[in-house]
Amino acid sequence: MERRYLEGISHVTRAVPYSVHKSLFYAGEEEALYLHWHPEIELFYLESGTLEFAIEDTCCLLHAGEAMLIPPKLLHHAWGVQEAGRTAQDLDGNHGEGISGKAKVGVHRALVFSADLIASPSEPVSYQKYVLPILQNPAGFSLHLTKEIRWQREVLADMERIFAEEKENRETELLIRGLLQVIWQNVYTNHIRQISGRRLDGRVELRMQETLDFIHGHFQEEISLETLARTAHLSEGQFCRSFRQVTGYTPFTYLKRYRLLQSCVYLTETDKKISEICLLCGFNNISYFNREFLKMMQMKPSAYRTRRRSEQ
Q1: I want to staple 80 with a disulfide (CB 3.0 to 4.6 A). Which of 32, 141, 158, 287 is the partner?
Q2: What is the pTM assigned to this prediction?
């Protein structure tokens, strides 16, 4: 995982392995939630307003009262959407405009927590059952939670209670832990268990690690499926199934994502032309590179370079 987007904020401590956050956002903001990842699991809840929410290269429209389950180490960000016919409102209780003249249009909350809060490695049976699947295959378990499905409504209600209790500034750590355990039982029963399938044996996981090492060392080159399968000593069909089970991605989706993340480093740390960076990162078509970069990063390479340099 590219450490450039690792969030600098620590969400957990040994004493309290979770944190609760509240943020306002504005209509048309390019980053109502800035692009980042963290090693913890996140439950992101939209209290009011509308957001375009992206996890890796998958986007969805998030409405008030809905939530996202964000597994660890996945890039995610969001931007505000102005709802047609809605009056701008200060969501702290005052009508009007917020800072810099921007109309406030929404509030989102987040519960960010260590997987150890569900079960720690010192509890091997529970850890392997309830935690390990989402750590081994994070990309396979992200979820948009809506009120249309009964068990998801229950999860949303429990999340709302957590945020309501936290706002009271009382000693509610045990209550929050308990509610989170209830939420996770629901998520495990209705989501994780349904899609985790048969766990791969350790030998296959080691083979996939060899493939990942190969990709990281040769991403600038043209790589065929045959070559990748050979690094794992599997047939192409077996390799594709195993690679997706371990990483959550198809082999070429993973390769493309890794190349795009490396291009971000070149854009930030060098003055090379974008066409040159395109070739250095294994893309042989500048139009395709620009299109895929825009899809993943929600901005063009040139805009990304300008923004990153302005932050330095």
Answers
A1: 32
A2: 0.66
